[in-house]
Amino acid sequence: MWLNQPGNKTKTMNNLNLEEQLKKFANSERKRTNKSFFKTGKGEYGEGDEFLGVCVPDNRKVAGKNVDANFTYLQQNIKSKFHEVRLCVVLILVEKNKIALKNKDKKVQKQIVNFYLRNLKYVNNWDLVDSSAPHILGQAILDKIKTKNILDDLIKSRNMWKRRVGIIATLQFIKTGEIKSTLQLSKKLLSDEEDLMHKAIGWMLRESWKKDSEAVENFLVENYENLPRTTLRYAIERLEESKRKKFLKGIFS
Fold first, then answer.
1. What is the mean pLDDT of residues 125-136?
2. Strand, coil or helix: what is 7?
3. Which residues are CB-contacts of 140 (< 8 A; sequence separation ≥ 6)?
4. Is 47 domain-assigned?
5. What is the rounded CA–CA span in Å between residue 245 and residue 46?
6. Where residue 128 falls among pLDDT bands split at 50, 70, 90?
7. Of 66, 73, 217, 223, which residue is the least packed, with the fewest Cβ within 10 Å?
8. Residue 103 forms beta bridges with which residues?
9. How far apart are CA 160 and CA 123, in angstroms?
10. Is there a domain that residue 192 lies in?
């Protein structure tokens, strides 16, 4: 395989590190937009994060050109202070995982998910989490490379991004029609104080509703008193309008 083998030549764009590659697509206006959009001000969830000013489509282009990068190269880059560089690394991991799945290579899948878990402290904003957790960790659990116990550990973390990884990873289960795990984790997270977690839980409940609307509606009714308002609004977005309004008022008949 192409991962960390002796003599392996990493195929990268002009052999530049990811930061240098991404700078070719950077612009100052995008940098200002990203700093505002990802809440980098004092006391905000992205406080202190730095940006090059690269849009996601361009980031994906760079990731695609580096899909053969080895773990040593990725380890060097995932520690970057720049948001887009860290995002590029997780996008590369996702692409590597797709190839491993296609080749039915669980050994490589295991290498990828282990690398991902070792470096979770760098997966530290919602876009990094959402673009990677289902495809890497969620898939690894589905393929029995990891167990679901890891999700319980993650949602107990003091680190919000780890908690978000724990719930967002279940999106991969939902796609197969398995929503039980999502409901169980959601219930444990209802007391979470972070708005970004309220949104994440609501999103997963909304996706679960597409697979089993009755089960999700029952969950919402049973836990109504403890549901953050944001979670409820996200979860019922697809309900018929009159029913949605009743849910917001706590009317279920």
1. 98
2. coil
3. 109, 110, 112, 113, 146
4. yes
5. 33
6. very high
7. 223
8. none
9. 11
10. no
pTM of the model: 0.91
What distance in Å separates the CA atoms of residue 122 and residue 225, rounded to the nearest whole number?
35
What digits encode the pLDDT tens for the residues 209-249? 999 999 999 999 999 999 999 999 999 998 889 989 988 98
| Spatial separation of the C-alpha atoms in residues 168 and 182, rounded to whole Å | 9
Q: What is the largest CA-CA distance in the chain?
A: 67
| Rounded-to-integer distance, Cα 10 and Cα 188, Å | 43
- Please check whether residue 14 lies inside any domain of the structure: yes
What is the number of structural domains in the chain? Answer: 1
∠ CA 132-118-194, rounded to 5°: 60
Whole-number Å distance between alpha carbons of 28 and 52? 8
Taking 60 as the threshold, does the pLDDT of residue 2 lie above it? no
Q: Name the region of 4 (left: φ>0; alpha: ψ -120 to 50; beta: rest).
A: left
Question: For tokens 């929503």, what's the residue?
Answer: 179
Tokens 């940098």: give the residue: 31
Residue 82 lies in a domain: yes
Q: What is d(CA 22, CA 196) in angstroms, rounded to the nearest whole number?
A: 28
| 125 closest CA partner among 52, 35, 207 | 35
Supply the range of the domain harboring residue 62: 1-106
